[in-house]
UniProtKB/TrEMBL annotation:
InterPro entries: KH_dom-like_a/b (IPR015946), OsmC/Ohr_fam (IPR003718), OsmC/Ohrsf (IPR036102). This is Osmotically inducible protein C. It comes from the Bacteria. Pfam families: OsmC (PF02566).
């Protein structure tokens, strides 16, 4: 896996993935940023959420669970000192679908956290306390 990050101006950078996709990244306003792009640490959280969500969705699909929506709300705490690393991260999954089995959703979240999500496992190994929970929402009845 490869990536390239090119400084464009001020505290803005163009990050390009090895697969040919790009995203603008910017430092905070306190460092001269203009709040026009995601911060590097925000990208880490988004990457963690995407990695874990991918696992949860694919595990549920393979378990023949009929999901219609899934999102994860992520909250993180950072150290007060520099480097301001993440100290705690909580992922709250909201899964919507027809007759979802609580046991299957719990299993999907657990497998992602403990076995499959490389980002979560890497951050946890570096000392970040990562917790997970979930809620299941049944689709609204149509009259």
């Amino acid at each position: 896996m490869k990536a390239r990050v090119q400084w464009t101006d001020g505290v803005r950078f163009l990050a390009e993935s090895g697969s040919g996709h790009s995203i603008v990244v910017e430092g905070p306003e306190s460092s001269g940023g203009r709040n026009t792009a995601a911060r590097p640490m925000e990208l880490l959280l988004m990457g963690l959420g995407a990695c874990s969500s991918y696992d949860v969705v694919t595990i549920l699909q393979k378990s023949r669970q009929t999901i219609s929506d899934c999102h994860v709300e992520i909250e993180a705490e950072r150290a007060d000192a520099i480097p301001a690393v993440f100290t705690k991260i909580h992922l709250h999954f909201v899964v919507k679908g027809e007759q979802l089995k609580d046991k299957q959703v719990a299993r999907a979240v657990s497998l992602s956290a403990e076995k499959y999500c490389s980002a979560s496992i890497m951050l946890n190994a570096a000392g970040v306390e990562i917790t997970h929970d979930y809620e299941i929402i049944a689709p609204e009845a149509v009259d």
